[in-house]
Amino acid sequence: MTAHLRQEAIRRISSSSERGKQSRNIQTTATDRLPETFGLYVFGDAVQRDRLPADVYTTLRRVIETGARLDPSIANEVARAMKDWAISHGATHYTHWFQPMTGSTAEKHDSFLEPTPQGGAVLKFSGKQLVQGEPDASSFPSGGLRATFEARGYTAWDPTSPAFIRKGPGGATLTIPTAFCSWTGDALDKKTPLLRSCQAVSQAAVRLLHLIGDTAVHSVHPQTGAEQEYFLIDREFFKLRPDLIACNRTLFGAPPYKGQEFDDHYFGNISTRVLTFMQDLERELWLLGVPVKTRHNEVAPSQFELAPIYQSISVAVDQNMLTMEVIKEVAARHGLAAILHEKPFAGLNGSGKHVNYSLGTNTGQNLFEPGTTPHENLKFVLFLTAFLRGVDLHQDLLRASIASAGNDHRLGANEAPPAIISVFLGTQLEQVVEALMEGREQSRVPGQTLRLGVNALPELPRDISDRNRTSPMAFTGNKFEFRAVGSNQSAAYPCTFLNLLLADSLDYLSDRIEAHGGFSEQVVQEVVSECLRTHKRIMFSGDNYTAEWRAEAERRGLLNRRTTPEALADWASEANIALYERYGVFTRNEAESRFHVQNEIYANKIKVEATAAVDMAETIVLPAAYQYQSRMAESIDRVRGLLGKEAGAGQLTELTNLCQRIEQVQQAIEQVRATKRAIAQRGLHEAELAKAYCTDLVPSMARLREAVDSLELWVDDDLWPLPKYREMLFIH
Ligand code: ADP
Ligand code: MG
Predict the structure, then answer these.
(1) Does domain 601-728 have CATH number 3.30.360.10?
(2) What is the Å distance from ligand 2's center to 305 Cα?
(3) pTM of structure
(4) Atom of ligand 1 nearest to the CA of 226
(5) Helix (H) / strand (E) containing 57
(6) 391, 313, 299: which is closest to 352 by C-alpha?
(7) Residue 179 pairs with which residues in a beta bridge?
(8) Among 273, 352, 280, 364, which residue's Cα sits nearest to residue 320?
(9) Quick check: 451 and 441 in contact, CB under 8 A?
(10) What CATH class is the domain 38-189?
(11) Per residue in 184-229, pLDDT tens?
C-alpha cells in the first residue's frame, strides 16, 4: 500500500463531490405517494386481509396478536398467499431469516422452483416450508450446546414479525423472520428468549393489573423504538483502511486538528451528499415498513442518527437489524461506507443505540404514562416501582446485555453513559418518589398533596427539560430510554433482560399486595413505599460522567463493571439461572451457552484487532517511516556535502527523534506479539481467554497505537499511506 493511493482517493473524492454539488439533483419521494408506498414490501395486515380467506385471516391475526399457537392447517393457505404476493413483487426465492448468537442476522435462500416430471418447472411454497426450515446449524456458535446435543438446528416461523421482500439487483427474496432452535428445543438465537420474555412480562403485568381491578386487560406488549447512530465516510477511504475493513474501527489514527469541540456538527446542516443518502435510505426503509421518523447530524463529525416510531418489541428488534443492514447497503450505493461500530474513531464520540422501552396494554394504555386520574397514577406508580426495583436488583444483567468489545470503548469513557447502571427520573418525578418513600404527603409541589389512588400526581412535563444525557437509563415522560446500548448491538438482549427484570418485580409487587390481604390503596401505598426505600440507591439525577459519581456509586454498592469479561461474569450465575428458569427465558444450558458465546466473540474480536494492528504497523506504517528515514538521511548527506560536516544539526535532531519513534513502534509490536504468545501458551478457554486478552493484550495494543499515532505526526504527509482522521471525517 502506498501513499499515492491515499492522495488519489482524496483527489477523486474531492472532484466527484464538486460535481455532485453542481448538479444538486436531489430526488424526493412525492409526499402524496408515501402513504401508498409505506410497507409495500411487507406481508402485513392489509395484504393478509386482501389475499387470505376470511377465516384464515382471522386465525392468523389471533396468532399474531395473542401469541396463540398456530393452527398447522392454515399454514398452507398462508404460504400460498405469501408466495403469490412475493412473486408479484418479483421474488424467486424465500429465506428463513434468523438471529444467531453471533449478533448479526443469517439467511439461506431457497428458490420456489420445483421441477415437474414432464421436464418443466413450477413455483411452489408449502405450509411446511413456511413454518419450518432446516439450515445447517453446525457453523453457528452454540456455546457448548453442540457438545452435548445434536448439531442440527431448525428455524421456526415467527408470525408476530411480518415477512417482507428484499430486492436485489437481480431479483427479490421473500424474507421470513424466524426463531432458531436445536432439535432438542434449545434456543440457538436471540429471538426465542426475547419472545419468551415478552410472554413472561405480559403474564406478570396482567396479574398485577387484575389484582388492582383492571380486568379488561388480557395482554401487555413491550414496545420499543431504537435510535440508531452511525458514521459515514467515503468508501474510497474505507477501502484503504484494513482496520476498518477487518474490525470496523480504526486501530490507528492521530486526532484531527479539529474534532467535535465546536459542537458544530450536532443538529447541523446536513450536507447534500448525506441528505441524498438519507432520503434514499428512508425510501427503502419505508417500503420495508420501517417507520423511520427522524434524521439528524450527531455530535461527532460524520456521525448521524435515525429513529423510527416505536413498535412492538419483536418487530422493532427485527426492524432494527434490518435497518442496520439497509444503512450499509444504501451507503455503498452512494459510494459511502456506513460504520456501525461503537467507537470507530478514538477521541471522538462513539455511537449508541438508545433503546426506548415501554409497556402497552391490549386496551391501548401505556403503563409508564403518568395518567390523569388517581387510579391511572396508582398504576403508573406500581409499574415505576417495579422498574426501579428490577433495575436495582438486576444491574448485572442489564450491564451484561450491553457488554461487547466495541461498547467497552464507550462505557466508562467520558462521553457515554458509564458502566454503572442507574436510573434518572427527573426532578418532579423524583420528588414524587421521595414523597412515596416517606409515606408523607407530597407537599413540595404547590397546591398538591399526594395520596395514591386519591390524588392525581403533580403534572409531569412531557418533554422533561432537565433531561439528563449522561444517564444510562432515563425516564423520558412515558418511557425509559436505555442509552448505554451499543450502536452495533442487537437490541434483543437488552430488551429480553428489561422484560425479565420487570416480570420478576411485577410478580414481587403482586405477591406483596396479596400478602397484605389484597388490593387497597393503603396496601399499595405501603408496598410501594417499602419497595422504593429498599431500592432508592438506583436513582441518580446528577452528572454520571464525574469521578464523584463513581465514588458515590461505590458507596451505594452499585456495580461498576468496566469491561466485557467482568460484565459477563454473572450471566450464568446460579441466582440468575434460577431467575431465567422461573420465567422460562433461558434454560440452564441456554444461559451457559450464551455466557460462552459472548466471551468467545469478545476474545475473537480482540484477537483479530491485535493481529491487524501488528500487521498494519509492520507492513504499512513502518515501511513508510523507513522511507522517510532514508529521505532524511539523504537530505542530511546532501546538506553536509554542500555546507560541511557540521551542517544540518536541526535535521539530525529530527532524524534522531524519528528513529526513536520508529523504535517505539518496533518495541510495541514485539510486546503485542509476546503477550499474544504468552496467552496462547496458557491454553485458556472462552471466559478465561477473554479475561487475559482484556487485562494483558488490550493495554499492549493501546501502547502500540500510541506509538504509531505519534509516528504519524512525524512522517512526511506525502509518504503516509493510511487515510488520516482529518480526511476520513471531513472530506466527503
Ligand atoms: P430523543 O432523541 O429526544 O430521545 P427521538 O425522537 O430521536 O428522541 O427518539 C425517541 C424514540 O423513542 C423514537 O424511536 C420513538 O418512537 C420512541 N418512543 C416514543 N414513545 C415511546 C414509547 N411509549 N415506548 C417506546 N418507545 C417510544
Ligand atoms: Mg434519545
Answers:
(1) no
(2) 10
(3) 0.94
(4) 14
(5) helix 54-66
(6) 299
(7) 156
(8) 352
(9) yes
(10) alpha beta
(11) 888 999 999 999 999 999 999 999 999 999 999 999 999 999 999 9
